[in-house]
Design brief:
Blueprint: H1 12-21, H2 34-45, H3 48-51, H4 53-61, H5 65-89, H6 96-103, H7 106-141, E1 157-159, E2 165-167, H8 172-187, H9 189-214, H10 238-249, H11 256-261, H12 269-287
Antiparallel strand pairs: 1-2
Helix pairs in contact: 2-9, 2-12, 4-10, 5-10, 5-12, 6-7, 7-8, 8-9
């Protein structure tokens, strides 16, 4: 076996030529502008990362979670600059896989490609489960109850109000939302982008309403001490807890890859991709 073949790189002009010719006779339509691209990233920020992961990180950092978000935002800015540079240089689909293929070789690109598949599988599952929990809670507030066996992962033990336990069979709401979003993506990128713009506008509106309604209830006394004393275990409060919290909340800043993957569908990728990615990074820092 010729090991050198594992490090074969694909030239940028060949990547661009493949994009122009399309795959299997199908060429992607360039229909996304900078606003659509920015909305893709913002939609990833204002989601499970902020609504679900924040409470988990607070268990490690306490009030210092504000510093955790700040550290995550700084790292996010540097990553955004790198993605913006690559996306404008190689404006084709594939994101980090394509960038690795052009610079590091086929074997590294293969590893990164599988990493991306696993990443999106895990992220999609996390978001779907988080959405399922909120949806089931909303239905319960409306007096509608789904069978508990259909609201969690298979094999999960669920405690009922009467003290008994049942074993979950299937998370129906999570499956339903993934199916609906998949069907929407199949319709086309333009339709998906429009739907995403609407959802992002609604999520931003919810955040703004929450901030305006809740600002009067903020008690600065809860911020003291800002960095609680470490319990003696690494990652439980103290500065190690803040660092651990930063690693957790970085999940809230994902979206670079989602934006750069859409480079092949951007109308003017060299101009629009940096705008979409860096504006998304600025939105991430403002969200802290």
């Amino acid at each position: 076996m010729d090991v050198s073949r594992l490090m074969v790189r694909k030239p940028v002009d060949q990547l661009m030529r493949s994009e122009e010719e399309g795959t299997g006779g199908v060429t992607m339509h360039r229909s996304l502008g900078p606003g659509h691209l920015m909305a893709l990233g913002v939609g990833a920020i204002i989601g499970a990362g902020i609504f679900v992961i924040t409470g988990t990180a607070a268990q490690y950092a306490g009030p210092g979670i504000m510093l955790s978000f700040l550290l995550g935002a700084i790292a996010c800015g540097f990553v955004g600059l790198c993605y913006a540079e690559f996306a404008s240089l190689i404006p084709v689909s594939g994101s980090a896989y394509t960038y690795a293929y052009a610079t590091l070789g086929e074997f590294v690109a293969w590893i990164i490609g599988w990493d991306l598949i696993l990443e999106y599988a895990m992220v999609s599952s996390t978001v779907a489960v988080g959405w399922s929990g909120y949806f089931v809670s909303l239905l319960a507030n409306m007096g509608i109850s789904l069978p508990p066996q259909m609201t969690a992962a298979p094999g999960t033990a669920i405690a009922l109000a009467d003290g008994s336990q049942v074993t979950a069979w299937f998370n129906l709401p999570a499956f339903a939302i993934v199916t609906i979003i998949s069907a929407l993506l199949i319709l086309g990128v333009r339709e998906s982008a429009r739907f995403n713009n609407i959802i992002v506008a609604l999520k931003v509106a919810v955040i703004l309403v929450f901030l305006v309604a809740g600002i009067g209830y903020v008690s600065t006394a809860n911020w003291v001490p800002l960095v609680p004393e470490n319990t003696g275990t690494f990652g439980e409060f103290g500065w190690s807890g803040i660092l651990r919290g930063a690693a957790v909340v970085f999940f809230a800043y994902i979206g670079f890859d989602a934006v750069s993957t859409a480079a092949q569908e951007a109308r003017h990728p060299q101009r629009d991709m940096p705008i979409g990615i860096l504006a998304r990074s600025s939105s991430a820092r403002c969200s802290t």
